[in-house]
Amino acid sequence: MRGIGKTTFREIKSSFGRFLAIFGIVALGVGFFAGLKVTTGAMVETVTGYLGKHGFYDLRLVSTLGFDQENVDFFSAARDVEAAEGAISFDVLYEMGDDYMGVIKAHSPYPAVPGRFGRLHQRRCDSYRCCGHHLWGRQSRC
Distance between CA atoms of 44 and 50, rounded to whole angstroms? Predict the structure, then answer.
């Protein structure tokens, strides 16, 4: 055992720069990992408080066949459910000229997301639903 210790110290002494570099990398990794472990609780608490304050949903049910109003009423009456609402969503594939194509996910009703900047829609045509006549195949009327 004594020989291994001597050899190890001799290796460290002969390449001290490499030893310091490896030691520094390990120290940074340990520090980063410890920081993440410490801040996880605070991050979860902050997000939970924010989502609770602004009333975001906890669960989203999606069905390929769809839900009707009877299903929405059933889920609304369930224990521990504050609110349940139905919505319709669909994907729109659109083209703008020959060069540009895209996909928009349209929702009804719009999700309530608190905004800090900008403004609310002043006219019906301020929303993305009638930004371009390519989306719906007809010219939008404002």
Answer: 10
Regarding whether 8 and 49 lie in a shared domain, the answer is yes
If asked whether residues 64 and 97 sit together in one domain, one would say no
Cβ-based neighbours of 114, under 8 Å, separated by 6 or more: 54
Q: What is the DSSP string of 61-72?
A: ---SS---HHHH
Q: What is the pLDDT of residues 42-64, one digit of tens each?
A: 999 999 999 888 878 778 888 87
Q: Which domain holds residue 94?
A: 88-142
Report DSSP state, residue 34: H
How many Cα atoms within 13 Å fall on the side-chain side of residue 98? 0
Whole-structure pTM over 0.85, yes or no? Answer: no
| Statement to judge: residues 110 and 139 lie in one domain | yes
* Total structural domains within the chain: 3
Q: State pLDDT tens for residues 120-129.
A: 555 555 444 4
CA 35 to CA 41: how far, in whole Å? 11
**Same domain assignment for residues 142 and 92:** yes
